[in-house]
Amino acid sequence: MKRRLLILILACAAAMQAKADEGMWLPSLIHERIADMQEKGFKLSAEDIYSINQASLKDAVMMFGRGCSAELLSGEGLILTNYHCGYAQIQKHSSIEHDYLKDGFWAMSRNEELPNPGLSVSFLERMEDVTSIVLKGYTPAMSEQERLELIRNNSSQLIEIATSAGKGLRATVEALYYGNQYFLFVYREFKDVRFVGAPPTSIGKFGGETDNWMWPRHTGDFSLFRIYADKDNNPAEYSADNVPYKPKKYFKISTAGVKEGDFTFIYGFPGYTQEYIHSEGVRYISEISDPSKVALRTLRMNIMNKHMSRSQTVRIQYSTKKAIVANAWKKWQGEGGGIKKRKTVQTNQEYEKRFIQWAKGTEYEGIVEHIDSLYKQLEMSHFIVDVFSETVQAIEIARLSAQVSGHSLESIQNKAQAFYKDYFQPIDRESFAALMEAFGQMIPSEHQPDYYKEQIAKYGNSQAWADSLFKESVFADHAKMKALGEDYHDVLLHDPASQFYLHMQSWALPHLNKARAINRELQLAYRTYMRGQMDFAPDRTVYYPDANLTLRVSYGHIKGYSPYDGAYYHPSSTLKGIIEKDNPEIFDYNIPQKLRDIYNNKDFGRWVDERGEVPVCFIATNHTTGGNSGSPVINAEGNLIGINFDRVWEGSMSYIDFDLDFCRNISLDIRYILFTIEKIGGASYLFDEMTFVE
To answer: Quick one: pLDDT at residue 3?
Structure first.
């Protein structure tokens, strides 16, 4: 049985032809795609992309933190990632006295590079198909729980062996194709990562949330860090004695420029896709979940924006928080529109009807109907969990109360110190009032918790409830937190913020448990459905594993698109567009005066294109998703031409349904990065350690 499944998967992967430029491919199996890549313009070999016997492109790519990608620019450990990927570190280093968000930061020597406790980067050492080992001992008579226990035990042994082979190693075993296949991923993790440089926010986040997910784009979304290692070039905790890491491989930088039709290759860690999802899952996302979450985040963002516009201190405090809230808010709107435009629900329903007819008399008979039933059972509980997450868990002091529960007084005070550094009570209090009012409107009365109904009845409305809770709560006032005495445990337990969170959590928990149980059943059903889809090959021509934050390859071409009738978007943008958008009265479009002067004086240096303009961004057909932020964009010769940072709004549904007509990844042209380093940062000394090619 195990062998049949594995053969089936590999045979399908090798035999199927990708639709256009769709796909997120495993690098260790890229030899199955290399002929198609070369036919489309790629000039390197599969061994150049991934090798465990010699240095390859994989050795120049890393996971940045736990949710972004990055790449090496030099033999001295210099790394490039997105501004938004390094944003939390930039914010942590910023203050009123040293506002690196407003002014940017450029280390002018190694001694000025800033450490970042808790930040790490990880390089993939190797990946290996371990399906037969992970499922060793499995029999069809086993229950699902027994199967999971077997997988955990076998995986633990694999991980233990893999991580004992050297310093700084970590490993994971990941399920692919809903558990039909398993891969071991072994990483080398470096924990001394120092901040080297970044432009001001007015460049790094130019356009803000207005331009987020949109094209044309003019955002200078990059930041620079450096990896440090011990004297033997091994991973090590931060030490003043550490030295810049000497990598196996780093990217040469192409300054030749790009044009429409050029081959593009992206290497990175895409986080999550659902390319084989049932129509009911798509319907819930697009018609129920996304609209409700967008509405709730709109309330929060309006409140944040109001207060951030009034105070520089609040702007710094909430810059990261707002960015996190806004990113998904914008994305959910785009994916809903894309799903509607693509008619994904209807298309999947038609596909499922054909599958049902084909499946009669096979082991797959009834599986589509079973999945449909599970989604209908899941809907209300899933919705309650969604609303709980976007309302109750959005209240900052409520989250703090949960985080410090059961901790020592010293630990509580340490957590509180970090919390209040970036806390502004009026935002939290207004958010509470607005979100609790929306909660009552969204959750049907018969499903509302008694506690909520009692508080609304007691105070009359959510605003009065908020005023009372924030007046009485210790968590709403840092001075009160500092004054906690020996009875702190009892005080915090009975605090109104704690009681709010505990009561609302108690209400949501049964729904969460139900949702988890049904989702486990769904995963089991999808395992069978995935095998069935592979057997039912004619209607689907691409079978790459869904993204799961493991290293993947995607390839495509630089290409414009038509978002709607009568309009066509060219595939590149320039500094001219930044100047056209420039408006000192609008925060997101207020560029540094230095950039205005450079443009007026045409002081572009060597970073101009054939139009005499400085290129800024370009779009291509590469299949990307969250986690690909910071991924290197590579040309046909394997040289760096840019870094990926976003997708176009019309194609943000690509994690569910990729469409070549609308799906475009957005990348920052390497020439704009170099231009900014030199002309804005005055840090061209960094070029001395880079390798440039024409």
So the answer is: 41
**pLDDT of amino acid 538:** 56
Residue 135 · residue 151 · CB < 8 Å: yes
Q: pLDDT at position 694, please?
A: 85
- Give me the catalytic one of 94, 254, 573, 629: 629
Q: Is 84 a catalytic residue?
A: yes
- In the predicted model, residues of the chain with pLDDT beneath 50 are 1-18
Spell out the SS3 assignment of 225-254: EEEEECCCCCCCCCCCCCEECCCCCCCCEE
**For residues 188 and 98, is the Cβ–Cβ distance under 8 A?**
no
CA atoms of 6 and 9, how far apart (whole Å): 5
What phi and psi, each to the nearest 5 degrees, are found at residue 395?
-80, 115
Closest among 3, 184, 31 to 553, alpha carbons compared: 31
User: What is the distance between the alpha carbons of residues 388 and 394, in angstroms, rounded to a whole number?
Assistant: 9
Inter-CA distances, 95 with 91, 317, 424, 477, Å: 8, 9, 15, 21
Per-residue pLDDT at 278: 97
Residues 578-599: tens digit of each pLDDT: 999 999 988 889 999 999 999 9
The helix (H) or strand (E) run that includes residue 619 is: strand 615-620
The 3-class SS string of 408-456 reads CHHHHHHHHHHHHHCCCHHHHHHHHHHHHHHHHHHCCHHHCCHHHHHHH
State the virtual CA torsion across 174, 338, 259, 84 in degrees, nearest 10.
-60
How many beta carbons lie within 10 A of that of residue 409, not counting itself? 14
Domain edges within the chain: 1-120+191-272+549-644+660-694, 279-537
221 annotated active-site: yes
Which CA distances in Å does 171 have to 160, 245, 310, 377? Answer: 8, 21, 47, 36
The greatest distance separating any two alpha carbons of the chain, rounded to the nearest whole angstrom, comes to 76
Q: What is the per-residue pLDDT for 587? A: 85
Its pTM stands at 0.86
Dihedral sign from CA coordinates of 671, 82, 123, 177:
negative
> Quick check: is 629 catalytic?
yes
pLDDT given for residue 542 in this prediction: 66
pLDDT in tens, 414-449: 999 999 999 999 999 999 999 999 999 999 999 999
* Distance, CA of 249 to CA of 56 (rounded, Å): 7
Can you state the angle between helices 425-442 and 367-390, rounded to 10 degrees? 140
State the Cα angle at 404 between 400 and 409, rounded to 5°: 130
Please give the structure tokens belonging to residue 183.
């891969």
The single residue of 129, 211, 221, 659 carrying the catalytic annotation is 221
DSSP-assigned letter for residue 544: P
> What's the DSSP call for residue 287?
I
* DSSP output for 71-125: EE-STT-EEEE-HHHHHHHHHHH--SSS-HHHH-EE-SSGGGPEE-TT--EEEEE
CATH class of the region 1-120+191-272+549-644+660-694: mainly beta
**Helix/strand/coil for 268:** strand
Please say whether the beta carbons of 69 and 547 come within 8 A. Answer: no
Q: What confidence score (pLDDT) does residue 18 get?
A: 43
DSSP secondary structure code for residue 126 in this structure: E
| CA nearest neighbour of 472 among 395, 397, 410, 399 | 397
Cα 494–Cα 495–Cα 499 angle in degrees, nearest 5: 75
